[in-house]
Design goal:
Helices cover 25% and strands 23% of the residues. It is built from four helices and eleven strands; from the N terminus they run H-H-E-H-E-E-E-E-E-E-E-H-E-E-E. The two termini are 26 Å apart. A seven-stranded mixed β-sheet has the order 3-2-1-6-9-10-11.
């Protein structure tokens, strides 16, 4: 069931033309800038792949604002967050996803906000990822203070319902190219 939904939603986002992707990323930036999320000082985001909505313009905006930006960095079955600057050298990890070179990485506790990629989401804040569980495993270690979790998506990735697993960590919000969904 989840695998079929994952395939359907990946196909939908991959069917967007380069022009649609560019326009969506610009709309995403505009909504992000107008939100309180843009005031965060330590923010993790991702390098877009596989039709994901691209947060590159958000990253540039954050650098201009003087925010510290981090990218996910995989280490075996765990994920940390490494500082990301305009002059950072990136190398592909085992999944072909660029991540900062070097060994420096932090747990999620140091972050104010995590802008997360997703395959799908629903109106209850449930997130469907690629299926590796890296974000959920990483975030499950946090008890009290945790960063705000905001998914970034194309509007076409909104699903009717995603049945969460007991280990799934719900999102605080999702920003699409059309609107901001807030949960809780």
């Amino acid at each position: 069931m989840k695998q079929e939904l994952r395939q359907k939603l990946r196909k939908a986002r991959n069917s967007l033309s380069p022009q649609q992707q560019t326009k969506a990323a610009q709309s995403l930036l505009q909504l992000f800038r107008e939100s309180s999320f843009s005031e965060s000082k330590r923010i993790a985001l991702y390098i877009a792949a596989d039709g994901e909505i691209d947060p590159e313009a958000i990253c540039s905006f954050l650098w201009e604002q003087g925010s510290e930006v981090f990218l996910p960095k995989l280490n075996q079955n765990k994920m940390g967050f490494s500082p990301y600057r305009p002059d950072s050298n990136l190398s592909p990890n085992n999944y072909g996803i660029p991540e900062p070179e070097g060994t420096l990485s932090f747990g999620p506790r140091v972050l104010d906000l995590i802008l997360m990629p997703l395959v799908g989401f629903d109106k209850d804040g449930n997130r469907l990822g690629m299926g590796g569980g890296f974000y959920d495993r990483t975030l499950s270690t946090l008890q009290q203070k945790r960063p705000q979790l905001v998914g970034l998506a194309h509007e076409c990735q909104l699903a009717e319902r995603i049945d969460p697993e007991e280990w799934d960590i719900p999102l605080d919000a999702v920003i699409t190219n059309q609107k901001i969904y807030r949960f809780k």
